[in-house]
Every structure is written in C-alpha cells, then in structure tokens.
C-alpha cells in the first residue's frame, strides 16, 4: 500500500477544484508517461489511458475523479474581504475555519486566507454560534493588509478567481488517513498504482480497458463523454458514504447498490460481490441516498453500458474526511480482481 499512499499524498498536495484542474492533469500526464503509457487529454481536461487487452472487441471503462470541492470569488466586500460562491456541493459549515488560497487569475499568484462566518467574534456578536451560515455572511479573511475593496483589488483579485482549501493530509501510525478530498483522490491513487503494477509486471488484461481520470464529477457531468463505442461495462471507483443506516465503514470496500440516480446494474453488482467472496476481500453493500458518480453521469448522457460503483469507506464526506488503509487495500484488491475477471 505504500506506493498507493505516496500517490495519494501527491494528489492531495495539488489543488484541483472543479474548473481549475490543469495542474493535476499535467501531473497525471507526466506520471503516466513516466510509467510508459500514452495518455490522452480530453477537451474537457480529463486524462484517459487505453490499456490494450487480449480481447479488443469489447471494452471496459474504469474511472476516478481528481476534481475537488472549492469556491470562487463571488464579490469583493467594502471591507476588503471576499464573498464566496461554492464549487461543488457542501454546507457552508463544512469549510468554516479552513485555511485557503485565492488563485489570482490576473497575476498567476496566490493570496492566502481563512474562511470564516462574518459574525465570528464571540466578544462582539451574541449570535456568533447560532447565526445561519449562508453565502451572504461567509467570507475570506485575507492574509494581506487590506481594509477596503480598492486595496484588495490592487492585489489583482477579481470575481471568478478560484479558491482552494487546505487539504491537511495526515497518515497516522494507526493507519488512518485524514485529509480533504479523499473523495476521490484515494481512488485516483489506486488506479495509478494498478497501472504502475500492470506495467512493471507485464500484466495483460483480459479486455481493453479505458482508465479515465475525470475533472468535472463534483458538478455532475464528470466522465460522461469520450466513451468508446466498444464499451460494455463502466466501473466508477469513488467513495463509500458513511453515516446513520449505512453499512459502509473505514475498513472494507463499499459496493453501491443504489444512489440518488437509481439502482446500479444488478448483475454487475453481484459480479463484484462474487469476486470479493472468491478473493477474501472484505466488503459492504450500501445505498448512498444523496450521491451521484461518473457512472451515473454517463448513464444520464446515454451510455449503453452496465454500470457499477464501489469505493473506500470515507467518514465525514465533503468535510475533513477520514478513511483507513485497510479500506484502501480492500478497494485496491477488488478493482484489481475485477479488471482481471471475465465480463459480467
């Protein structure tokens, strides 16, 4: 698992809110070329790799997304602080108190800051703890000597500049991985490590497989295009959602049976369960009630494939997330077993 964790640390260190993903796409292209693959950069900015298999008449697609939650500058306030617009879906309290970077388009530089509710000081605002967190009162406190809109704009900051959040990636001695954006950089790390292993071990997959790293999943359309006409199966490797009424945990691989888009392919799901049982892989079946994936986006776009979704169990999704290396390992094993198996 060490190589997978190394990939994860590298991926989380590269800022990539949806719409601001060129740097992470560049990294993927560079790393894949280093491994000996010819990558394809899509017009949307995703990175695809085609691995030829023994059977080239029917293809598989496997995806992970490298775009993350983030924000954009909504407005520069009269006191020089910034209003935000969300990129991706999350409640405002999920990012309150987080350090951030403003990526200034006009200069190419960054300005650091902290995301706070306007009524933060308990010595001034009686409702500091109870006021509703909304777009109107969440703001970025810049680490710059600015006291008004003019001074902030003199830094080059303007509406539409991207804002990224500090990932704060930590791997503990007890095997826990804490970071923002484990959704879905854990999965991207797994796919990169599998590609590394297949190249080093000269593994020939049974079917030509398209590894797709998408960059618009967090806003709903992800890897819903650039699909080969030969594709018959589509596996999204994303995250397993944890919470009340969920079986998913931080130590097994989660196989999704249904999300907000509806049920996933029944035969495909059962195929994954059979592979897990045959290979001694610890798994859980689950429903993710408020969730969509690259696979569900592809189905809405009209893909004629069998689709499935699995991933490591992620605690506190879209906040400061956590998983365990055990879950990463079980997910790694199941994706590998699937890619080496017969078609559903």
From TrEMBL:
Annotated GO biological process: proteolysis
GO molecular-function terms, A-Z: aminopeptidase activity; metal ion binding
Keywords for this protein: Aminopeptidase, Hydrolase, Metal-binding, Protease
Binding residues annotated for Zn(2+) 2, in chain numbering: 183, 218, 318
Cofactor notes: Binds 2 divalent metal cations per subunit.
Pfam families, alphabetized: Peptidase_M42 (PF05343)
Family stated for the protein in its record: Belongs to the peptidase M42 family.
Protein name: M42 family metallopeptidase
UniProt organism field: Gemella haemolysans
Lineage summary: Bacteria, Bacillati, Bacillota, Bacilli, Bacillales
């Amino acid at each position: 698992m060490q190589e997978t964790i190394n990939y994860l640390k590298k991926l989380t260190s590269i800022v990539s809110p949806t719409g601001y993903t060129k740097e992470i796409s560049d990294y993927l292209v560079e790393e894949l070329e280093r491994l000996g693959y010819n990558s394809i950069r899509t017009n949307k900015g995703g990175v695809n790799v085609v691995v030829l298999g023994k059977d080239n008449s029917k293809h598989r697609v496997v995806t992970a997304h490298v775009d993350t939650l983030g924000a954009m500058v909504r407005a520069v306030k009269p006191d020089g602080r910034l209003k935000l617009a969300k990129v991706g879906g999350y409640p405002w309290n999920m990012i309150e108190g987080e350090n951030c970077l403003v990526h200034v388009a006009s200069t190419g530089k960054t300005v650091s800051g902290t995301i706070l509710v306007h009524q933060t000081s308990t010595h001034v605002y009686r409702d500091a703890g109870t006021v509703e967190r909304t777009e109107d009162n969440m703001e970025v406190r810049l680490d710059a000597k600015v006291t008004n809109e003019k001074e902030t704009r003199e830094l080059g900051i303007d509406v539409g500049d991207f804002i990224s959040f500090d990932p704060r990636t930590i791997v503990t001695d007890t095997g826990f991985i804490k970071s923002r954006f484990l959704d879905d950089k854990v999965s991207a790390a797994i796919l990169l490590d599998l590609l590394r292993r297949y190249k080093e071990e000269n593994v020939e997959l049974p079917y030509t497989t398209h590894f797709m790293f998408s960059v618009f999943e967090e806003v709903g359309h992800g890897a819903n295009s650039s699909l080969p006409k030969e594709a018959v199966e589509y596996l999204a490797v994303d995250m397993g959602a944890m919470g009340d009424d969920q079986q998913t945990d931080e130590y097994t691989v989660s196989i999704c049976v249904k999300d907000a888009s509806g049920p996933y392919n029944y035969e495909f799901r059962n195929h994954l369960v059979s592979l897990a049982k045959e290979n001694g892989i610890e798994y859980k079946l689950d429903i993710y009630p408020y969730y969509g994936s690259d696979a569900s986006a592809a189905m809405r776009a009209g893909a004629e494939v069998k689709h499935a979704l699995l991933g490591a169990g992620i605690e506190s999704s879209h906040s400061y997330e956590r998983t365990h290396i055990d879950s990463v390992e079980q997910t790694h094993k199941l994706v590998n077993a699937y890619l080496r198996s017969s078609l559903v």
